[in-house]
Amino acid sequence: MTRSLLTPLVASLPATVPFIGPEEMERRRGRPYAARLGANESIFGPSPRAVAAMQAAAAETWKYGDSTSHDLRAALAAHLGTVPAHVLVGEGIDGLLGLLVRLTVGPGDTVVTSAGAYPTFNYHVTGFGGEIATVPYRDDREDPQALIDKAREVGAKLVYLANPDNPMGTWHDAATVQAMIEAVPEGCLLVLDEAYVEFAPEGAATAIVPEDPRVIRFRTFSKAYGLAGARVGYAVAEASLIAAFDRIRNHFGMARISQAGALAALRDQAHLAWVRAEVAAARDRIAAIGRDNGLSAMPSATNFVTLDCGADGAFARRVMEQLDARDVFIRKPFVAPQDRCIRISAGPAAELDSLAAALPGALAAAGRG
Amino acid sequence: MTRSLLTPLVASLPATVPFIGPEEMERRRGRPYAARLGANESIFGPSPRAVAAMQAAAAETWKYGDSTSHDLRAALAAHLGTVPAHVLVGEGIDGLLGLLVRLTVGPGDTVVTSAGAYPTFNYHVTGFGGEIATVPYRDDREDPQALIDKAREVGAKLVYLANPDNPMGTWHDAATVQAMIEAVPEGCLLVLDEAYVEFAPEGAATAIVPEDPRVIRFRTFSKAYGLAGARVGYAVAEASLIAAFDRIRNHFGMARISQAGALAALRDQAHLAWVRAEVAAARDRIAAIGRDNGLSAMPSATNFVTLDCGADGAFARRVMEQLDARDVFIRKPFVAPQDRCIRISAGPAAELDSLAAALPGALAAAGRG
């Protein structure tokens, strides 16, 4: 490639990738995992009605998807008590975050996030030339006041909060998040990532006020709805901000089958309730497995549990690697002091049995003691 | 929305959209189309094996797609006689074009294309702040020499050629395109859009020399493979250019079902051959329908036929509108003098019967006389 072909910005970007996927890791290790507990997917699966809807839509895949995702947006708007002008459907929260950053961040602009929070957001910010300012977690939770203070200090365009949080699983109550919304500085937008909100206890989610220009909210079908591979996320925000995405988004980017699957999944709230119950039970089991091995569990409002390995990041990394060697795929936080933990997705009994069987040996091999 | 939230570039962008989709048009007109012949979809459908593969993959949609599309890339590389390092899979050519423009074009950069060529490419260029220089079609074909001359004149980063061409359906032989590749100026890249290449006659496609740094080639599963709604396109180029996409792409953006569908479709070359034969027959039928109504057909190497309505753009627009009023969805070129034409996708007999029934009345109502 002629070096001069790339823009100066792109030429300056690192070749790093936010996450290596489990299939790629399986190819590198040369054998499959027995338990896939690292990507916070919903191993409990999507609604059977969503599966049926996708199967029915398969033969119609010669048609492009509806460029406005009209039916899904309408259903989401009704579900959320708003109108479609406040809702945008896109290719997962990752894709929508990329578009939001492109809309708002260029060279010279700064965003604020927590050190160790969702790396794909940072990937997009760096990719569009923005600067990232961080504040530390406080007591293993994101720190709304510190985020707001930093946003004010640096004149941030965006300030990111995941509630509930990934990778820690912790959360803030609605009053705390609402106070954060009220405190967003002029000219700044709160990026409220609610990928895991369906798993949160009552009272953790703020009321949606879609006209509020201070916050954009992201939700997804990848987690509780079990459709990670379909790539369907959505944003809820003030209508003119939603409309601005139309200036840059890939209008025919949504897969038609995915639109059908998400619509059917949304309509099956009974399946969602079942998944929530299964996830709650799995969280308890993961915490118990940790306890049996001397590891304490973070409280979780998500479909994963973060276990404190009780030492430093290097030890936790060895535990993760030893679980990998025992065919259990997990991930871990990567910034101190949260990097002392490992992060384990909820799953059915068979997967958690694999975890329970592997963890004692992994801890021993990691050199605890 | 606080106006200052948007970057100056985004704030300057128009709210226009390259295409209104047929579902949105159906909602606006208040009733469905009888014949969907405007989006160059393959109404003949995908391979039944691809449908079966997608149906089988539906229950696995709780997993994210493979971030490297490993199996599909490997199969494509083998199919093309190269290695996966030269192949990138992405969310349709539209998505890949957006990424390519982002890699290479910023404010102050210029690209070259033909006036009236694929508008989504222009949409991306404008969206990233680039300037567009155009040359006219010559005899209803893109003009390789003029494109190269203009690229040299303006110092273009990219020069775009669709072969076969959309919206005219015309094409150049391999020798002409290869000569264009040889003439690409230093510091410029030929964007060779081969979305319709599977429909082209023998000898229209240049040999793929994946190490050649002067050209990036785009192909898709949306047309001949009948998977428009799955959103799977691919690029073939020099390895370091392919690798550069990894710095900015949405790594987990591919739908898992789509990956499975495309892989199965690629393996069913017999279905592809059947589609090619059906399309060839449908092209002849569309040309005959045109002839019966006094309209001449452009020669076509695609899955559509462009009919010359024999007057100006306003007349052709009225014909299109009158077909719409008769429940036949088509599109048309939008830049003179090509805008004197209408563009009709190949389809099965029932759809073409609808066209044949509607066209005489549409022409009369459009005021031919």
UniProtKB/TrEMBL annotation, chains A, B:
<feature type="domain" description="Aminotransferase class I/classII large">
    <location>
        <begin position="36"/>
        <end position="359"/>
    </location>
</feature>
<dbReference type="GO" id="GO:0004400">
    <property type="term" value="F:histidinol-phosphate transaminase activity"/>
</dbReference>
<protein>
    <recommendedName>
        <fullName>histidinol-phosphate transaminase</fullName>
        <ecNumber>2.6.1.9</ecNumber>
    </recommendedName>
</protein>
<dbReference type="Pfam" id="PF00155">
    <property type="entry name" value="Aminotran_1_2"/>
</dbReference>
<keyword id="KW-0808">Transferase</keyword>
<keyword id="KW-0028">Amino-acid biosynthesis</keyword>
<dbReference type="GO" id="GO:0000105">
    <property type="term" value="P:L-histidine biosynthetic process"/>
</dbReference>
<dbReference type="InterPro" id="IPR001917">
    <property type="entry name" value="Aminotrans_II_pyridoxalP_BS"/>
</dbReference>
<dbReference type="InterPro" id="IPR015424">
    <property type="entry name" value="PyrdxlP-dep_Trfase"/>
</dbReference>
<comment type="pathway">
    <text>Amino-acid biosynthesis; L-histidine biosynthesis; L-histidine from 5-phospho-alpha-D-ribose 1-diphosphate: step 7/9.</text>
</comment>
<dbReference type="InterPro" id="IPR015422">
    <property type="entry name" value="PyrdxlP-dep_Trfase_small"/>
</dbReference>
<dbReference type="InterPro" id="IPR004839">
    <property type="entry name" value="Aminotransferase_I/II_large"/>
</dbReference>
<keyword id="KW-0663">Pyridoxal phosphate</keyword>
<keyword id="KW-0368">Histidine biosynthesis</keyword>
<dbReference type="InterPro" id="IPR015421">
    <property type="entry name" value="PyrdxlP-dep_Trfase_major"/>
</dbReference>
<dbReference type="InterPro" id="IPR050106">
    <property type="entry name" value="HistidinolP_aminotransfase"/>
</dbReference>
<dbReference type="GO" id="GO:0030170">
    <property type="term" value="F:pyridoxal phosphate binding"/>
</dbReference>
<comment type="similarity">
    <text>Belongs to the class-II pyridoxal-phosphate-dependent aminotransferase family. Histidinol-phosphate aminotransferase subfamily.</text>
</comment>
<keyword id="KW-0032">Aminotransferase</keyword>
